[in-house]
Known about the structure:
Blueprint: E1 3-7, H1 11-23, E2 27-31, H2 34-43, E3 48-52, H3 60-70, E4 75-80, H4 83-92, E5 97-100, H5 105-115, H6 119-124
Parallel strand pairs: 1-2, 1-3, 3-4, 4-5
Helix pairs in contact: 1-5, 2-3
Amino acid sequence: MIRILLAEDDDVMREYLARALTSAGYHVTAVDRGTAAVPYIDSGIFDLLLSDIVMPEMDGIELAQHTAKVAPQTQVMFITGFAAVSLRAEENVPQAKLLSKPFHLKDLVREVDNLFGRADRSSQQ
């Protein structure tokens, strides 16, 4: 099973995202800030870091950079509602995917499915 680490500081958004991804068949571990995600990333067991960019204590870009150092096999996808922050993310972590808010939960699942070669499954839903 594909394991996703979700780092999102907004409680409602985190719950919606986790529920949608779990329903789509992913194993999701959700945390409310970048610093809470670090021990999970250090374990090296996640296939995807799905992170908001703007978070307290440690932003998503810093978290992605840490991920690239300690768990380079973990893919990164950012979610954000800030255009300027999106540009900064693209400059600092160019290999990461970026999904801009607002988006529909189906769009998120489709993007994650595509990332892991599960596009055929998405088109059947």
